[in-house]
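The aim of this short unit is practical: by the end, you should be able to scan a pair of folded records and say something sensible about each. We start with the first protein, listed as its amino acid sequence and then its structure tokens.
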Amino acid sequence: MKQFEKFSATHLYCDNCGQSMPVNEVLLLILPDGNLYDYRCSACGSSVGSRKENKGFSFDINSDKTDDEEDEGRLGQWLKEE
């Protein structure tokens, strides 16, 4: 089951406020393998957690060729053009 594919927090415990507080999700970094988010307390603005969202990879399930075979095919076409 993929019920929680994308999970975001709405409230987290804040040490400064001493209780569970609503949080804002802020994009910190855009990485090659996904995005890094920071959760900040909406009252005092301190960081209370983080989350990394991994990028999904799409595969062509109809292709029987491997990546190496596709590269060789492109190389062969390039050599023929010269």
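Turning to the second protein, read its sequence before its tokens, just as you did above.
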Amino acid sequence: MLALFAPLVAMPANVAVAQDDKLLEDFRSPRLAAKPRVWWHWNSGQISAAGIAADLDWMQRVGLGGYQAFDVDLGAPRDLPPPSGPAGLLMD
């Protein structure tokens, strides 16, 4: 049984450091497949080209790897006017 673990114990220190460096580099700059993804809900089609562009820019800026978009029909009217000011919280 000890013979199975002997190669691990006898691993040169520079190999262990190289593996640690690779792990750290992969953590700092993960490949696309390792980056998080999000669900992106478009509620009742209330989206705009400008809003989509802003969201995509943000997703790229924060390092997301992708998204799954859903147009969720919640029964809300599809012809709402754009908001006239900043959105408030429900408790305001």
